[in-house]
Amino acid sequence: MKIMSIVGARPQFVKLAPIARAAAQANVDHMIVHTGQHYDPLLSDVFFSDLGIPAPDVHLNIGSGSHAQQTGMMLQALEPVIQDAHPDWVLVYGDTNSTLAGALAAVKIHQNVAHLEAGLRSFNRAMPEEINRVLTDHASDLLLAPTRVAMRHLADEGLAERSVEVGDVMTDVLFAVQHRVQEGRTPNPIADEFGFTPQQYALATIHRAENTDDPVRLRSIVDALARVPLPVVVLAHPRLRAKAHDAGIDLNVGSIRLHDALPYPQLIAAAMQSAHIVTDSGGLQKEAFLLRIPTTTVRPQTEWVETVELGWNRLVEPEGLVESVTRQAPPAVSDTPYGTGDAARRVVSVLIDRA
């Protein structure tokens, strides 16, 4: 059996790692296609080496552009690749333009499509990611849902018969990397470079368009981070740096300590020793919950509602950020809404059974 994984952005590379290992263990022919949506080495190539992912079989080098331009270029480039390979399954990941382009390119030439991380909903159609995930779910032949909540969303949309709950592959990755950190095999560069001890700093990532494209909103977020009463290490995504520069916003202000984006293992090492996480990333909200790090998410909605319901994540507007970061830690919980670390094996097993 042959599986073709189509990826292109940082969160997808992380999810790809356990799938690649599970496919190898099951002796499945696994082909990796990299669209090139993320082309900065820190957001792309380094993930393959750090997470032990085989080099892509095909690299399309699409690069940046508007949503329409990027998705259109991917569609055009992916169609002949899929036709030539003729896989049993085209596996798409998450909610990026690469996800939607991969699903559309495959389904239009009658290739089976499976969507990993299906059924997540923010119910905010202003988010490009929400459009991508909804369209991908409705185009796909098999929906691999990470949680019971995701399964309910799919059933509500009439997609129950195509849906299977497999758990969350990010849990697989997180637990493996956490083990490496605990064994001392992955250092915390934030502690090393700034001289921080554990729990002495907060860690922040801000990159989504709704937070960076509006200069007024971006300035209010930066001002709030600057007023947090402990150092806030902002892992500065290239988008954040560019938008702040264009708007004349100084990121080196108040409590903020700027640092480049980190490779995934180092990100987890830094998160594990932080007192709090501030983010607008979908993935980091969940990783913080799995690590039991209190989190503030600068968004009005989240796909990972369990993190909020269990008290470890709070959704805020910029004016509520400081109060949220300084709140007391929530009570301990033992819930495992994102699985126990065997999702990738279950994904590959389902794909084999349904090929």
Write up this protein.
The strands form two sheets. A seven-stranded parallel sheet has the order 3-2-1-4-5-6-7, with helices on both faces. Strands 10-9-8-11-12-13 form a six-stranded parallel sheet. It is globular and about 55 Å long. 45% of the residues lie in helices and 15% in strands. By secondary structure, it is of the alpha/beta class. It has 16 helices and 13 strands. It has helices spanning 10-25, 45-50, 67-85, 97-107, 128-139, 148-156, 169-182, 189-194, 209-212, 215-226, 238-247, 264-272, 282-291, 305-309, 321-325, 343-353; strands at residues 2-7, 29-34, 58-59, 89-93, 113-116, 142-145, 163-165, 202-205, 232-236, 256-260, 276-279, 295-297, 313-315.
Taking the sheet with the most strands, its summary is: 7 strands, parallel
* Quantity of strands, as a count: 13
The low-confidence parts are none
Helical content class? 40-55%
Main sheet: which strands, in order across? 3-2-1-4-5-6-7
Question: What form results from the Cα inertia axes?
Answer: globular
Q: What is the alpha-carbon Rg in Å?
A: 20 Å
Percent of residues in beta strands?
A: 15-25%
* Helix and strand composition category: alpha/beta
pLDDT averaged residue by residue: 94
Order of helices and strands: EHEHEHEHEHEHEHHEHHEHEHEHEHEHH
Number of helices: 16
* End-to-end distance: 8 Å
